[in-house]
Amino acid sequence: MTRGLPSHRARGFTLVELLVALALMALMAALSWRGLDAMVQTQQRLGGRADALLTMQTGLAQWSADLDAMVQQPGLSSLDWDGRGMRILRRSPADAPEGEGLQVVAWSRAVRPQGSYWMRWQSEPLRRRADLQAAWAQAAQWAQNPGDAERQREVALLPLQAWQIYFYRGGAWTNPLSSADQDSSAAPRAPASAASAAPAPSGVLAPTPLARTDALPDGVRLVLTLPADAPIAGVITRDWSRPALAGATP
Question: Could you give the 3-state DSSP secondary structure of residue 48?
Answer without folding.
Answer: helix
